[in-house]
Amino acid sequence: MQILRIKSNKLPYAGALLFAAVQILFRVPISRLLDTTVVKPLFSVFEPGILVDCTLIFLLLSTVIWITKERYLRFLVLIALYGLILYGLQRTNEYWSFIRMASLPQLAYWDLVAIASILPLPLYPLLNRKANDVQPDLGLQGFIEDNSVVSYEDDHFNRKAAASEIARLIQSTNNQKSFAIGILGEYGSGKTSFLKLIDLGLDHKQILRINFDPWSAGNPEMIRREFFDLLASDIASMDSKISSLIYSYGRKLASFDTRSLSFMNWFGFLHNPHSTQNSGEYQQINKMLRATGRKIVITIDDLDRLYPDEIMEVLKLIRNTADFSNVFYLVGYDKMYVQNAIQTLSDAARQDYLDKIFQLEIPLPKREGGDLINALQEHLKTTISTAHYEVFQNTLIPTGFHNKYQKAYSRVLRQGRDVIRFINGFKIIYRLIGEEVDFESLLVLELIKFRFPTIYELIYSHSDHFLYENPIRSTHEQYFLPYMEKSEGFNNDISVFKTYIEKLEWLKPEDVGLLNNLFLTLFKGSLHNSPKPKNSISYPLYFDIYFRYRLSQTDISDKDFKAALASDNMYEYMVYCASNNLHKELLVRLMQEDISKDQYHFEKIVTCIFTFGRTFIEKEGFMRFDYDALINKIYNYDNAITNKLYKKDISSYTRFIKRIFDTASPPYLLENELIYHLKKKGEGFVLTIPEMVTYQLSFFTRYAESGHGLDKDALWIFWGARESYREPAIESDGYYEQWRFEPLLVPKMKAYLNSKDPKEFLKFSIQHDRWTRPGAFIHKQVLEIFDTPSEYRKLVSENPALNADIKREYLELFDKCLAKDFKGYVEMEFKTELKKLE
Known about the structure:
Elements: H1 2-25, H2 27-43, H3 50-70, H4 73-91, H5 111-118, H6 120-127, H7 129-134, H8 160-172, E1 179-184, H9 191-200, E2 207-212, H10 220-235, H11 240-259, H12 263-271, H13 280-292, E3 295-300, H14 308-321, E4 327-333, H15 335-345, H16 353-357, E5 360-363, H17 371-381, H18 386-401, H19 416-433, H20 439-451, H21 453-461, H22 463-466, E6 467-470, E7 479-482, E8 484-485, E9 494-495, H23 496-502, H24 509-522, H25 540-548, H26 558-566, H27 570-579, H28 583-592, H29 599-620, H30 627-634, H31 640-645, H32 650-662, H33 669-681, H34 689-708, H35 712-720, E10 722-728, E11 735-741, H36 746-755, H37 759-765, E12 766-768, E13 776-778, H38 780-783, H39 789-797, H40 804-819
Parallel strand pairs: 1-4, 1-5, 2-3, 3-4
Antiparallel strand pairs: 6-7, 8-9, 10-11, 12-13
Helix pairs in contact: 1-4, 3-6, 4-5, 8-9, 10-11, 10-14, 11-13, 12-14, 14-15, 17-18, 17-19, 19-20, 20-21, 20-24, 23-24, 26-27, 27-29, 28-29, 30-33, 33-34, 33-35, 39-40
């Protein structure tokens, strides 16, 4: 595959050679073809001039800049290569007469082709400096292989010095018997790499190196045969006679072992180590090897991959059957695993059995505290964007990986192999949703998944046990907070999550602490401070995406949202969301956006909320809009907005708010209802209450007189243009909250009730009894519009636009209410459109 990839990368350059060859071989036919199809139709009447020169240079420069910014460097190199070939061959072609430029007679217009071909190369670093510095080519990154070191440059854990010293001592030791060295380390700790480092320190001309992999043999019976076959094969290059003896000796031993492989025979070699060494062939092999004066270093890695009986067979080779002069064994294993494997074969096996096999056991040199973090940094740098890498460097490293006593994320990654495995898994998730979610949340969650996959699943499946949504007063402000509970003996509360996982029998106390810190980092909002990244896992809008690894049809893309916001394409994006039933999600995301950055961003987001709010109301109804949330964004509490964003220029902010209301579009429901809520807060907004009432009057008048009459939306505007007031309570010192229609709009409504169909007004005026049906009464606020009830009755009875059945039924209700002095419900069975509104 590697060869094929290299060849495919060279294909464009091979094509360039072929292109040049075709140009040379078929110079005349190609020239005639170009002459017929391009030159004569376009340039036969071409007239040089200064204006032509400037226009052509401008077009070429624009094209060059566009290509340079949009294409990769390799593509630009190919353009230059093919362009220069075409230019050079045609420029030296006697078939053509090239037209000279008017402004630069030294150059022909055809020379501009060569300049345009080459120009992208010097421009590329200038135009793409930011992109090159900020964004690695993430699309070409594949999985990382868990390979051992092949050179000292790969020694990320600085173990070269210890390995070199072991290699030096091996070369200086004159051993009469085999010398076995055990390299001890846990799985994935780097034993294989350390063995390779020792190998790099050996003099390869003086030492025969042999790598034996017993785990590839398949069963204990084959281990000995394959070992001696390999030994004989490799020694053949040194001495063919020794090779033949070893081959014969190994076959005899293998034949013997197929007849006797009992446990007692395996352990018998420890008590009688000279059983095979007394044979003539063994003595002869040993003598000949000693005579060569050349050392043989046999590396046996991953002893802890084997089954117990296979481990015993390898130990038997080292201690007995292959205990030759000038031979060194370098064996990598996890001592605890090998010791336990021996004890599974016999309860009588002692802890010092391995001491009989290995003359020296060397624990793997410990890495420095930051080695794993450095390796993680190195791999992440080519995996994630530069913006995310800065978050990793400036936030996660100091607070999470270097915080020994609190978060200590580094304890998730225990070995060098863990880093490779984590990065390979993280690559998949990052490519899928890395630009859709908060990077810090994603990395922390993936650390949990890597080390504790069961807990990862628990966080998702039992999230309602550990998390609750706070606060519930406003949709856009909802975010998850961890349930906390009082803890005896501690000043601080502890999470329910920690209490829950403490009860799991398989988690160590230190793992519980680590998991709790990771969990609290994921959901780190508080009652008074929401998490800053609005696409963090704390927000319900994005929570599922972290576990699903993709956007569903009901998810809004944070990446697309930010791109539309940055490129001034928000209108098109709002249309897209509205047409794809994502209007609720988009409005929540707009409400969540931080608008405290600068004046431009503030005005842009507020304008978008107003613009898209009208679409939201059209789909969901104006009662579902979160007016309090919008007020919190635009209300100038303690002059916070004007001081920070408008340089204390309140008039400038007032002009912006007025522009918002001035550009409102029918049916004005959003703006009208917002003013109602603003009026309830009292004075303090940048618009005075009279100014806001004037807007409500304008909305009502403009809508009613634009052909809509007194339809439902017109009535909602009128109903929303009301004012609240307090009425003293007779029986106490308190008061009652009351409301009335805005007096400024009342004359307009009375006029419209005379000239337009008042059906919707009559329907709005009726309060139906929800419990004791049939029952209804007429709102007292409606009667308060008129000087007397009879004035209102006369207006209804004499309105020519009103349907006769509706008029009759409403007057019947009116008369029943009048008989009770408009106090309480009256029984009324409606049969017309006046029946209860659904």
